[in-house]
Amino acid sequence: MSTPCFTDAAWQRNLPLFNATLALPFNRELAAGTLSRERFQHYMIQDAHYLVAFGRSLAVAAAKADDADGVVQFAKAAEEAVVVERALHDGFMREYAVSAAQFEATPLSPVCHHYVHYLQSMGWSRSYPVALAALLPCFWIYAEVGRAILAEARPNNPYQSWVDTYAGDEFHALVARVRATIDQLAAQADARTLEAMHQAYTDAARLEWMFWDSAYRLGQWPC
């Protein structure tokens, strides 16, 4: 029996966590189209803040890449995180009448604050393969959540554009390219680096769960 590649192994290690993510009230109600506007608005504002930091972390990864292809791949991914996905958020911001001033005045929630600082610290302080493993859940879990929700989303779902973005072929192709790069790096890594990559992936996958859970609870600082 052949040894599974890193990303397949990471997915299997964290499958119960992914299933728990799918089962979160936020995602169940998003699929049903019954998620409250207040909760989705809270999520969109926090996610827009998050994506700026995510883009910075991808740019750091691009700078650490050990070949030109990696530099281009993750510099482009950084641009897409900030520019392309922001277009999705801007549409919802207009629909929800969230002004630029309101967005800027809304602080990062505790979970969002923790997540972005985790990714940035991993990007600056850890090796290129480990930093990429920490970034992978944001790509891959969103893609699989989007696809799972698409399979059961009700007609005329008010959040259909969100579902279509992450369930779409273009986003899944991006995920496949990121996975391929990480698998190539993992194939050359020593045992210590591989275990660090697995831990980075799991920590980020936990933070993905926490992000959606926090959005449903309208998470904010206690004082």
Question: Overview of this structure, please?
Answer:
- It comes from Comamonas terrigena.
- This protein is mainly alpha-helical.
- It has a single domain (6-13, 36-216), classed as Heme oxygenase-like (Heme Oxygenase, Chain A), CATH 1.20.910.10.
- Helices cover 80% and strands 0% of the residues.
- It has helices at 6-13, 15-22, 25-32, 37-64, 68-95, 100-105, 110-125, 128-150, 160-167, 169-187, 191-216.
- Helix 4 packs antiparallel against helix 11 and helix 8 (128-150) packs across helix 11.
Please outline what is shown here:
It catalyses: thiamine + H2O = 5-(2-hydroxyethyl)-4-methylthiazole + 4-amino-5-hydroxymethyl-2-methylpyrimidine + H(+); 4-amino-5-aminomethyl-2-methylpyrimidine + H2O = 4-amino-5-hydroxymethyl-2-methylpyrimidine + NH4(+). Helix content is about 80%, strand content about 0%. By secondary structure, the chain is an all-alpha fold.
Radius of gyration: 17 Å
Structural class, by secondary structure, is mainly alpha
Sequence of secondary-structure elements: HHHHHHHHHHH
- Provide the CATH architecture: Up-down Bundle
CATH topology name? Heme Oxygenase, Chain A
Straight-line distance between termini? 55 Å
Q: Which consecutive residue ranges, at least 5 long each, have pLDDT under 50?
A: none
Q: How many structural domains does the protein architecture include?
A: 1
